[in-house]
Design goal:
Distance between the termini: 23 Å
Shape: globular
CATH architecture of the largest domain: 4-Layer Sandwich
Mean pLDDT: 93
CATH superfamily of the largest domain: Aminohydrolase, N-terminal nucleophile (Ntn) domain
Strand order of the largest sheet: 3-2-4-1-10-9-11
Number of strands: 24
Strand content: 25-35%
Largest sheet: 7 strands, antiparallel
Length: about 450
């Protein structure tokens, strides 16, 4: 997860606000901390724990003037949830000041950090972003920014989409497999680089195009250039962006997330039909797939559950206790819609299973005659080492139990998952263009070091 944004604005008084609105639209990608660095007469940086709206106010944004900004919202994988790990990170280099925001996860973080420490580096954080910053700083002692990016790409393993500013040069870069999304937009103010197109919409910018895997985009004095840094024989776009992470109104790598999720629901209805009275989403990430399921099956769409809009996304909360407690206040059943009915609940995924059980029980207690559960992804059987907080097999219910055992565990009358072929068809890409390692245990890069560290 995590959301990154970069702004180039010809109006220096607008830059921080544009970064703020962009991050606000990316809040779903991380709720632990947020920060903005603005390059003007000097570097203005402000970051803290919490939500974007809690960290920034009008006075603070007015103080942050400059033409270039880098912003970040954090969802932690490598590194604890604490202020030291909030981004952007600042570093001094021979060529000037560097601010960097990172979305992804390095699978060789620990060995890289150990090597840097052996050579005299001192770390302030326990985030893998600082490894990237220190490697870049060393490279910039002898090279320009593009050569420096190319050189560190040869040693970094894993997922890393970064937005950074070197002095007032704004740079976006996506690793050669393209795990995490990055898109460029243009508005009356100048340019924006962001994790999702919804951030472009928030500042009235039009899509220029996605940054390709292994490609950098540079914006210098209002001039934009795309440069291919590294090439790979395949790509590994994270399929979970389409299943869960991204906002449904975003377009990622040319694919409408809304359209993908509606197709997921339609294919799920074909693969796993059920006799029922209503189809209901587990809000909000199951909504679009539930619409597709309803259209394909002909079963009425009706809301069995209403979400409290002031509660965040439970999956990306930092610990299991927080996730379980938040379910109780996150949603409530609509008794008149479910009483005496056969209900099909559509959710995007089942990771640990505890939330699903609570939701099924909630609908049963509201008077549902039957509760059927349909899942818009295949079973998650393997840990993700590229930026999703599910790092051990033991916490993945589908790695330990059969579908029938999971059905009993969540107390549903029936349970069915989308097939892998169905998911690939819904996304509309080739299998070798996607990272589906969490569904297959077939990782696109060597994750042996990350597996070892996860057991430590």
């Amino acid at each position: 997860m995590c959301g990154v944004v970069g702004i180039y604005s010809r109006n220096e008084s607008l830059t921080s606000r544009l970064a703020y609105y962009s991050l606000y639209s990316l809040q779903h990608r991380g709720q632990e901390s947020a920060g903005i660095a603005v390059f003007g007469d000097y570097i203005h940086i402000h970051k803290d724990m919490g939500l974007v709206s809690e960290i920034f106010d009008r006075k603070k944004l007015n103080e942050m003037r400059g033409s270039v900004a880098v912003g970040h919202v954090r969802y932690s994988t490598t590194g604890e949830s604490k202020i030291e790990n909030a981004q952007p990170l600042l570093a001094k280099t021979k060529n000037g000041a560097l601010a960097i925001a990172h979305n992804g996860n390095l699978v060789n973080y620990f060995s890289l950090k150990k090597e840097l420490e052996k050579n005299g580096s001192v770390f302030i954080t326990d985030s893998d972003t600082e490894v990237i910053a220190k490697l870049l700083s060393k490279e910039l002692e002898a090279n320009n920014i593009l050569d420096s990016i190319k050189n560190i790409t040869s040693v970094l393993k894993g997922s890393y989409t970064v937005v950074m500013a070197l002095n007032e040069t704004l740079i976006g870069y996506r690793d050669s497999l393209g795990f995490k999304p990055l898109i460029v937009g243009e508005g009356d103010f100048g340019y924006i680089i962001a994790s999702e197109s919804c951030a472009l919409d928030a500042v009235n910018a039009e899509i220029v195009r996605d940054v390709k895997p292994g490609e950098a985009v540079l914006i210098v004095d209002g001039e934009m250039e795309f440069v291919q840094i590294e090439r790979s024989e395949r790509s590994a776009y994270c399929v979970f962006e389409y299943i869960y992470f991204a906002r449904p109104d975003s377009v990622i790598d040319g694919k409408s997330v809304y359209d993908v999720r509606e197709r997921i629901g339609r294919i799920l209805a074909k693969e796993s039909p059920v006799d029922a009275d209503i189809v209901s989403p587990v809000p909000d990430s199951g909504t679009t797939s539930a619409i597709g399921f309803s259209k394909e099956s002909g079963i009425e769409y009706s809301e069995a559950l209403i979400k409290n809009r002031y509660v965040g996304r439970t999956f990306i909360l930092p610990d299991q206790n927080s996730r379980e407690l938040s379910v109780k206040i996150k949603m409530n059943s609509v008794r008149r819609n479910v009483r005496g009915k056969r209900v099909v609940l559509i959710d995007d995924s089942i990771v640990r299973g505890t939330t699903s059980r609570k939701i099924v029980d909630m609908v049963r207690n509201a008077g549902a005659r039957e509760v059927h559960f349909r899942v818009g992804s295949p079973p998650i059987i393997s840990p993700c080492y590229f930026g999703i907080d599910m790092s051990t097999r033991e916490e993945l219910i589908a790695s330990q139990k059969t579908v029938e055992e999971i059905r009993k565990e969540i107390n549903a009358d029936s349970l069915a998952y989308l097939s892998i072929d169905g998911l690939i068809k819904a996304v509309g890409m080739r299998r070798d263009e996607l990272c589906i390692a969490c569904l297959t245990a077939d990782y696109p890069v060597d994750v042996s070091e990350a597996k070892l560290c996860a057991r430590c």
